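Dear Dr. H.,

I hope your travels went smoothly. While you were away I took the liberty of generating a structure for the chain from your last submission, since the lab meeting agenda had it listed for discussion. I wanted you to have the full record in hand beforehand rather than looking at slides cold. The sequence, exactly as received, is reproduced here:
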Amino acid sequence: MGQNSNTIQFPGARNVPSVDVEAKKKIRKHKLARVYAIGLITVLLASVLIGYFIYERSRIFESIEIGSSIKRSNVDGTKILEFAGSVLTFSKDGASAMDATGKLLWNQTFDMQNPMIAVSGGMAAFADYGGSRIYLQSSSGETGVVDTDKPVRKITVSDNGYVAAVLEDLDVTWIYLYDSNGTVVAYFRTTMEKSGYPIDIDLSPDAEMICVSYYYIDCNDLKSSVAFYNFGPVGQNSIDNYVSGFNYTGEMIPYVEFLDTETAVAVSDARISVFAGAHKPVSVSEMFINDEVLSVFAGTDAFAAIYSNQANGSKYRLEVYDKEGKKTCEKAFDFDYSNVTFGNGCVVLYGDTSIYVGTYEGKLKFEGEYSKPVLLLVPDKASYKYTVVTEDTIDAVELR
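The corresponding predicted structure, in token form, is as follows:
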């Protein structure tokens, strides 16, 4: 009697040769080996990147090395600032920008008595205080003009080329919003009786919101307010596009600034306030201060304030805050500062020949002296590279 088979043979089916099974096993084994190899390489690369990041964050530099230097001429009355990684200079006669190699990127001519400037991302706006024309300039070289029918008192610009302007008109002050072609998008009026006089104004990077600080007198008391206006869909059903506001007694608020589309900062002589919300901002932080605020500087992911620090044994004190208003570090110093800038997770403080670089958390990266007074210091994409502008040179430098 023959042995019974457990194999059922279907019509049209064929027996799979054992060599096919072995081949499939080899293919599967090869695929698994590739997966393991790719996983191992990924882990190794991640380890290298994490190690490099930790190394860079903990690295302390001891000197500055000039890689290249080009000559420049400094004209009296000319102001200089960073603009989208380039060096922007402007005066009564016009403005221009050049890169770290001295190459002219663009040039804009105008005739002003008291020029004002506003910068956001890759857009700059220029206006004469009391004039009626606003000049727009992008980092790519595109230009635009906005004509107003009332004297300009203050301007602010967004990343996408929209301009908000405070315009004076007898007993009424107007705030207008224009697009990059000079077309009026929206406007509203302010009066001392209704809202107060606008002290400062800022436009969000996407031009959807305007933040205004006002002051007014109520029963002989000084009062201030911070108001937000939304020109997107959310604000269309609100009177004058007003969506939220906050009132303060006995304080003046000379500084308001958007860090990004969802975060704004207001600074008075008594407190620092942080507001959050892309459509209807709310107050998320109130920090009361005792020392005099001398200057405020804002980045996109942090901001800093410099205080008088005489009572604590030094001339000044730098404090850095994150976007939630939490203080992340502070530094006392004595040199006369000229500016604070942000880049690569670091805050850079400089003045005359002194330079300080530290992380937002207060980790020292560099502290030392440059060979001559620094007018402007621009961070590069690499955390140890900078462009340094002096009276007569533009230097590409590296921290060592």
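Two observations you may find useful: DSSP finds one helix and 32 strands in the chain. Helices lie at 18-58.

With kind regards,
E. W.
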